[in-house]
Amino acid sequence: MISPLDLTHSNYIQQKMDMKTKPKGSLGKLEALAKQLVLIYAQGIGERSLSSMQFAIKEPSISVFAGDHGIAKEGVSIAPSEVTGQMVANFASGGAAICVLARQLGWHLNVVDCGILTPVPMSNVVDSRLGTITAPFHQRCAMSLAQVEAGFVSAKRLVESDIQRGSNLFAFGEMGIGNTTSAAAIFSAMSGLPPSQTVGQGTGVCQEVVDKKQRLVEQALAKHKLDSTKPEEVLLSVGGFEIVHIVGAILAAAEAKKPVVIDGYIATAAAILAIAMEPHCKQYMIFAHCSNEQGHRKMLDYLEVEPLLHLDMRLGEGSGAALALPIIQSSLAIYNEMASFSDAQVTQVVK
């Protein structure tokens, strides 16, 4: 069970932000972000202690979960499923975009094999395999309930390990050929939107392949008759092994009262499922960016959230979430270090 945020300090935090040497609200989303973060980190702290405390991001952790999808055999991507394993090796070797960003920005990076066709025999790849590949979900359920439950347990174990290492901020990325089709099926099942509004180009496929993806999602929705009030059934019917892990990791981080940075299209599909399972976990989420994938803007609108960035990205891997870290750190620095009108002896102008 995930507890709702205790909002006892909400007015105090807002007043402290309003009294900084700036016009009220002039730092826009940075102010709302700082308030959200301080509320999360101040859980259980008395106001007298809060007034003298400073808050910082410590050992931020980003995990890239990889899984292969049976639906990829239908030709929904420009790449074959074997590329998932090749990219996992690239992550482990430090050559992918997320590796570059993690090094540049200071993220601790976990690479997790959730179930890919060919395991990567590298010591820095975490083995959390739920299978080799999911079933083609337009024909039968992608996985079993037992696999979903095992993925949740493993994801929670990974989050708890990073918390013991000192992490107080989490982000989750993914790799899996075919997973934009899975995410579109999840979003259609949960929102009721037709596949024509949720299916996009993914890796950059042509319109003919987009049409095929839409037909496959339509077939899956008709076959499974999914109910948005039963998110676990949606997940096992049309999800992916890596998406299972992201959902489980989001829930585990929120249960531990740690903020979670949500990446792009696939990660937001996982967030939709997590919120349906545990509504209070949404209070711990920071939405990093609006992807260029068709449907992501609709996902964000569905959740009634605004992302921090608009960079026309559609890579995945957690790349958008990684880029949000300096903004998150800056919001806390403003809260901690910016002088108040009285501290700076600046006349406060009230309109």
UniProtKB/TrEMBL annotation:
Q: Which E.C. number(s) belong to this protein?
A: 2.4.2.21
Any Pfam family:
DBI_PRT
* Catalytic reaction list: 5,6-dimethylbenzimidazole + nicotinate beta-D-ribonucleotide = alpha-ribazole 5'-phosphate + nicotinate + H(+)
Q: EC top class, in one word? A: transferase
- Catalytic residues as annotated in Swiss-Prot or TrEMBL: E317
Does this UniProt record's set of keywords contain Glycosyltransferase? yes
Record keywords: Glycosyltransferase included? Answer: yes
Q: Which UniProt keywords apply?
A: Cobalamin biosynthesis, Glycosyltransferase, Transferase
Entry's Gene Ontology molecular function annotations: nicotinate-nucleotide-dimethylbenzimidazole phosphoribosyltransferase activity
Question: What metabolic or biological pathway is this protein involved in?
Answer: Nucleoside biosynthesis; alpha-ribazole biosynthesis; alpha-ribazole from 5,6-dimethylbenzimidazole: step 1/2
Family per similarity comment: Belongs to the CobT family.
Q: What does this protein do?
A: Catalyzes the synthesis of alpha-ribazole-5'-phosphate from nicotinate mononucleotide (NAMN) and 5,6-dimethylbenzimidazole (DMB).
Under which name does UniProt file this protein? Nicotinate-nucleotide--dimethylbenzimidazole phosphoribosyltransferase
**Source organism per UniProt:** Pseudoalteromonas obscura
Gene that produces this protein: cobT
